[in-house]
Amino acid sequence: MYCVKCGVKLQEGTEKCPLCGTPVWNPDGLPAESTYSSRMPDKAYDRDPLAAFLTVLTVLASVAVSAVCLVLYGKLGWGAIVLASLLLFFVIAVLPVWFRDPNPVIFLPIDTLALELFLLFICRRTGGHWFMSFAFPCVGIMGIIGTATAALLKYLKKGRYIVIGGLQIILGAFCILLEFFQHITFDTAMFRWSLFATIALFVSGAFLICVGLIRPLREFVNRVFYI
Amino acid sequence: MRNIRWFRLDTAALIFPAIKEHNWNNLFRVSATLKEEVDSSVLQTAVINLMPRFPSFYVRLRKGLFWNYLQNIDSPPVVREDYAYPLVFMGSEEMKKCCLRVLYYKNRVAAEFFHSVSDGTGGSIYLRTLVGEYLRIKHGLAIEYDDSVLDPADKPRVYELEDSFSKNAGKVAGRELGRKAYRLSGTREKGDFKHLITAITDSDILHGKAKEHGGTVTAFLAGVMLQTIIEIQSEEVPEGKEKPVRITIPVNMRRLFGSRTLRNFVLTLNLGVDPRTGPYTLDELIGNITNQLALKATKQNMAAEIASNVGLQKNLFIRAVPIDIKHIFMKMGYSSYGEQLGCINISNLGVVNCPDSMKDYIDRIEFIIGPQQTYPNNCSVATFNGKTFINLIRNTGGSELERRFLTKLVDLGIPLSVESNDIGGYES
């Protein structure tokens, strides 16, 4: 059998020409015989051994630190900070490995909360006064921005350039806010570094938004970077 | 010969571990379709029997402090049933076990290689020897061993394992870089799926047609491909803004330098035209490729090209840099120049021979190279027993390039049979 459009001879039973997609008349109703099997490679990557290894490692490190502190000092002391750090490491780095397809929209708020609690603990433990005026708002805002970006990138099929460009502009504005929190908490001077970062982020963010809005430019960038 | 446990990567092979990505690396396949169904247990035995004869093929990729290297493996790869598409991504975990895969499906035996191990010529010698060993075990075939099918009972020769690049580097380094070439585009298939279209034709008709147009088969196919890509570009890009259109043609340097290595010994040439200079007829394009090949694929020019690569490899300062930092710069160099100078590969393995006693059992021998990092399409050609197999692979949707290229061949009077791995239509 031949493709009436391309003029090439086709395999018996082919339903359509692989070159032009023209349907092929198959009067004898012969079944198509593929030269390749239908077997697809395993997509699933077994992460369980890695997750188990990291969990055991975290637990062993926690037990070792607790034992050393209790034997040497009779109390946890600095070991409490190490234990809190290990717990934070577990939540941020190990917990997602247990899931086959960890959703960043769920894990980023969990990570933000864990980081806030960790910083609150450190602040209390060291007698600091920086948590409410600096760490809490900064980490909270970063968590919200991160989660919103992850959600938009995950669920929006189009407009990724605009999302990433918008994120850069928001991050630029956040830099000024960050320096403001730094100023009111640690009494540092304003506008020593944030303006430079803000301008750079605004420019690159505006460029990406332009790429997202101007179709020929977007196609050019996609072609050049093979996106 | 002493028992070699590890190999330095040859000069060409060094780049492949550096540029591999989480979903792409440089693989190629050589396959033989027999006239009978493949017996997987006999094939496994043949794979085991070839281990001592091909020490540089049964290797895994290891990472040292300054360079990657290949280490011999003790247990042979397990033969597997073939997948729905060729050249399934070979991840780091797999390469740490073995850089060679042997697959079977119905009548077909295929060997897939990570390109650091060997090139098409070396790979085809391995495959033919594997098929020879399979037929010897299965049918008691007495094979007349020669350079195309090696005797598995022999010991590996020193010249088969040599790094021919280092041996044949010229005294003067020379490399020509040009303007970046036009980039074929397309929407990449989700996952790793690759579409393969195989066009089969009579090799005498193809050879005769190439001769009629004043070129070799490679130059003829490259000329038709150039014309196809020029057409596609002219529809996408405004006049005067066109980029050069070039075909990347690997040149087997074994003949030029008299090498018999089984490891990599090819260099690529990017040959083509700048469409802004005016329209070209097909004969002019074929003539252009033929002349550029004659001009550039000389021993002296290739030795200078090799010297450029070997010079970098032997530079003391570069050698002292840790491997991960080297990889960053190698990747940047490859992204900027390695793939930017061509649009598509046309890799012609040429006429693949084997002893007459084996020919009665083999229907086809094919050669397939995977898509490059940024070329969505690639083309590979092999001729066996009077038939030429043109394999066009792509990791994007849409078969426009293949349709135009192959219908041009039909229009030129070359009858083609076309097969695809995607007869039901791949749903990404």
**Strand content range of chain B:** 15-25%
The fold-level CATH name of the largest domain in chain B is Chloramphenicol Acetyltransferase
Mean pLDDT of chain A: 88
How far the N terminus sits from the C terminus of chain A, by CA atoms, comes to 38 Å
Rounded radius of gyration of chain B (Å) = 21 Å
Tell me the name of the CATH class of the largest domain in chain B: Alpha Beta
CATH architecture annotation of the largest domain in chain B: 2-Layer Sandwich
Task: Give the oligomeric state.
Answer: heterodimer
| H and E order of chain A | EHHHHHHH
Discrete helix count of chain A: 7
Q: List low-pLDDT spans of chain B.
A: none
Number of strands of chain B: 15
Domains of chain A, number: 3
Strand content of chain A: under 5%
> What is the H-and-E element order of chain B?
EHEHEEEHEEHHHEHHEHEHHHHEHEEEHE
Which structural traits does this protein have?
heterodimer, A: 227 residues, mainly alpha, 3 domains, 65% helix, flat, B: 428 residues, alpha+beta, Chloramphenicol Acetyltransferase, 2 domains, seven-stranded mixed β-sheet, five-stranded mixed β-sheet, globular
Description of the molecule:
The complex is a heterodimer of chains A (227) and B (428). Chain A has 227 residues and is mainly α. Chain A has three domains: 1-40, no CATH class; 47-102; 156-227, no CATH class. Chain A contains seven helices and one strand. Chain A has helices spanning 48-73, 79-94, 104-126, 131-155, 160-186, 194-213, 215-225, and one strand spanning 9-10. In chain A, helix 2 (79-94) runs antiparallel to helix 3 (104-126) and helix 4 (131-155) runs antiparallel to helix 5 (160-186). The radius of gyration of chain A is 28 Å and the shape is flat. The model of chain A has no long low-confidence stretch (mean pLDDT 88). Chain B is an alpha+beta fold and 428 residues long. Chain B folds into two domains: 6-149, 2-Layer Sandwich (Chloramphenicol Acetyltransferase); 195-420, 2-Layer Sandwich (Chloramphenicol Acetyltransferase). In chain B, the strands form three sheets. Chain B has a seven-stranded mixed sheet with strand order 10-9-11-13-14-8-15. In chain B, helix 2 crosses helix 4 (120-139) and helix 8 (217-236) packs across helix 10 (282-296). The longest helix of chain B has 20 residues, at 120-139. The model of chain B has no long low-confidence stretch (mean pLDDT 91). Chain A binds chain B through residues 3, 6-11, 13-21, 32, 34-41, 43, 222-224, 226, and chain B through 81-86, 88-89, 105, 108, 183, 185, 188, 191-192, 196-199, 373-374, 376, 399, 402-403, 406-407, 410-411, 415-425.
